[in-house]
């Protein structure tokens, strides 16, 4: 088993992100964020803003139909798509239009604001052969998803326990081992979130980031992390590099906010705003 890499500033300098040059927004890629219920549409907004703060060029966000108007105003940088609401039984071709949009994007984030995959949305999108960050309720669809080298799973300890059928205490006792087990089982990169976050590939490569601080444990923080990773994927970073850089940006943003605002009490919406200046320092 290879040694665990320390994901710090020195690692980032040694693994620079792809430089899009002067190619404009098309050269920095398109991200599609697929969210969930009306009452959680803000989670998709947090993720979408983070993707843009990470340098993605174009953004689309798909949320419940009832939230489209409000989100279109709150997030004018994005094209906001409506998720169909045609009752409890999925109709034939229910997700066809969204799958077509997903097929034309460079990175897809599925899960912010999605409580579960009862309607089959995440399962349908995981059939699309694209780089996909899978978070929150969408993680439940991984059991039936085809393997793809561009997948990145971002579970916390509770979600990882459900993914692997383990007690949460076992995951918390050895999160790296849990991350490696999930990476091997699903053939995907895994971001095992926690006070120390691990990034793991199916071949055993692993990294560890131990910064950030407790303030990052706040509602919406995981949505921001998923958006940062998706934005970096869209820019052309590989799965391990996108995940590692996303975790680093997220953590370093937390450290900056803690020193300026306080150890606790800053908001998830403030995290992504720190990313551009952190990126500029490398």
TrEMBL record:
InterPro entries: CARKD, Ribokinase-like. It holds the Pfam family Carb_kinase. Its cofactor is Mg(2+). AMP binds at residues 193-197, 222. (6S)-NADPHX binds at residues 43, 113, 223. The keyword Zinc does not apply. Homotetramer. Catalyzes the dehydration of the S-form of NAD(P)HX at the expense of ADP, which is converted to AMP. Together with NAD(P)HX epimerase, which catalyzes the epimerization of the S- and R-forms, the enzyme allows the repair of both epimers of NAD(P)HX, a damaged form of NAD(P)H that is a result of enzymatic or heat-dependent hydration. This is ADP-dependent (S)-NAD(P)H-hydrate dehydratase.
């Amino acid at each position: 088993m290879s040694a665990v890499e320390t994901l710090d500033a020195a690692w980032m300098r040694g693994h620079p992100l792809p430089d899009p040059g002067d190619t404009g927004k098309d050269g920095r890629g398109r991200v599609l964020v697929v969210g969930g219920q009306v009452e959680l549409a803000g989670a998709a907004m947090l993720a979408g803003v983070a993707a843009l703060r990470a340098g993605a060029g174009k953004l689309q966000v798909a949320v419940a139909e009832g939230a489209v108007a409000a989100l279109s105003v709150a997030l004018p940088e994005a094209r906001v798509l409506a998720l169909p609401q045609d009752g409890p039984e999925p109709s034939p071709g229910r997700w066809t239009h969204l799958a077509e949009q997903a097929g034309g994007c460079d990175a897809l984030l599925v899960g912010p604001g999605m409580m579960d995959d009862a309607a089959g949305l995440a399962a349908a999108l995981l059939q699309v052969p694209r780089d996909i960050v899978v978070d929150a309720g969408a993680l439940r669809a991984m059991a039936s998803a085809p393997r793809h080298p561009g997948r990145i799973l971002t579970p916390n300890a509770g979600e990882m326990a459900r993914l692997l059928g383990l007690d949460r205490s076992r995951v918390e006792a050895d999160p790296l081992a849990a991350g490696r087990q999930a990476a091997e089982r699903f053939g995907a990169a895994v971001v095992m979130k926690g006070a120390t976050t691990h990034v793991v590939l199916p071949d055993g490569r692993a990294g560890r980031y131990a910064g950030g601080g407790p303030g990052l444990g706040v509602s919406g923080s995981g949505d921001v992390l998923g958006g940062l990773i998706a934005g970096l994927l869209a820019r052309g970073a590989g799965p391990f590099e996108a995940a590692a850089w996303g975790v680093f940006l997220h953590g370093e943003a937390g450290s900056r906010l803690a020193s300026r605002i306080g150890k606790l009490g800053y908001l998830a919406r403030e995290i992504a705003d720190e990313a551009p200046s952190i990126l500029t320092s490398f």
